[in-house]
């Protein structure tokens, strides 16, 4: 996909991954990618190692906690 974006003339790309599972530290391949620059690579804190990944640009963390808490606090058990 990155190659297709490069061929189409993309200078930078942003991406979003809900559940950032990167086997064998494969997320490191996105660091300093000279072929296509990731301006932002958003991941959520749905798994423990996301905190470590988000310490390395272009990765940025989006927290699911406030969203989940808001939904649970608004849920009415009497009126499903």
Please provide the ordered H/E string of secondary-structure elements: HEEHEH
Strand content: 15-25%
Rounded to the nearest angstrom, the distance between the terminal CA atoms is 42 Å
- Looking across the biggest beta sheet, what order are the strands in? 1-2-3
Count of extended strands: 3
Q: What's a concise summary of this model?
A:
With 80 residues, the chain is an alpha/beta fold. The protein has one domain (2-74).
Question: How are the elements arranged and paired?
Answer:
Blueprint: H1 2-7, E1 12-17, E2 37-44, H2 50-53, E3 59-62, H3 65-74
Parallel strand pairs: 1-2, 2-3
Describe this structure in words.
The structure is a single chain. With 80 residues, this protein is an alpha/beta fold. The chain has one domain (2-74). The protein contains 3 helices and 3 strands; from the N terminus they run αββαβα. It has helices at 2-7, 50-53, 65-74, and strands at 12-17, 37-44, 59-62. The protein has a 3-stranded parallel sheet. Helix 2 (50-53) links the parallel strand 2 and strand 3. It is elongated. The relative contact order is 0.18.
